[in-house]
Amino acid sequence: MGFFDIFRRAPAIRETGALADFIDQNAAFLIQKGMYEYSRARAGHYAKVLLQEPEFLAAIEKARWQGFPLGLALVGEMVEGVLHAAISEDRRAGLDQLIALVLSVFDRYPVPPSIGTMAWEEARSDLERRLDQVGLHAPKFVKDIPGPLADAYFDLMPIHEKLRAADRLAITSYLRVSLINVHDALIKRIDVPAVAQSLLAAPPDTRG
């Protein structure tokens, strides 16, 4: 990347492939950034030592893969809210296609060795269920989306329970602010009518 590339705007999102990449990158970033920042904050002066410990590296590797489906659920629901007005006349079809798109992002990755096949398949089923439930209510404000998943995310933190017992509200706030930032980034890049058309024109969802 050249020096002046850092001043260029990110390319517009006009079709589902670009949207899938956006979901992938931001779901992973949302989960990992919070875990590393929280771990550094809790370790304090010992953060540099902690982040080099093999036991910690193994724990956070497992935690980030456990958290990735949660990140996909959060970003996926946020995306549905952005597209809602454009697909509202056929919301169920649009949501089904969005679920299929998010699951295709999940399926980009092989089973993480630290998770195992059975747990990874269960995580995929939970992700599908959570996204399906989005259609049972009106789109939420972005700040309200993380609430139901904040505890599950907090429980994945690779820090001993005795050291993180009082920090649930801080983690919830982190997810809210971060998801709002992801939303703002998407709004700046997305061509909503074009993406909605691309989504609804995709092959019929064949989820079993």
Identify the notable features of this structure and list them briefly.
single chain, 208 residues, mainly alpha, 9 helices, 68% helix
Topology:
Elements: H1 16-43, H2 47-50, H3 54-87, H4 91-106, H5 117-132, H6 147-154, H7 161-164, H8 168-189, H9 192-200
Helix pairs in contact: 1-3, 1-4, 1-8, 3-4, 3-5, 3-8, 3-9, 4-5, 6-8
Summarize it.
With 208 residues, the chain is an all-alpha fold. Helices cover 68% and strands 0% of the residues. The chain has helices at 16-43, 47-50, 54-87, 91-106, 117-132, 147-154, 161-164, 168-189, 192-200.
Beta strands, count: 0
Helix and strand content put the structural class at mainly alpha
Helix content: 55-70%
What order do the SSEs take from the amino end to the carboxyl end, as H and E?
HHHHHHHHH
How many distinct folded domains?
1
End-to-end distance, in Å? 42 Å
Largest β-sheet summary: none
Q: What is the tally of helical segments?
A: 9
Query: How many whole angstroms does the radius of gyration measure?
Result: 18 Å
The averaged pLDDT comes out at 88
Unreliable stretches, pLDDT < 50, 5 or more residues? none
Shape category: globular
Beta-strand proportion: under 5%
Oligomer: single chain
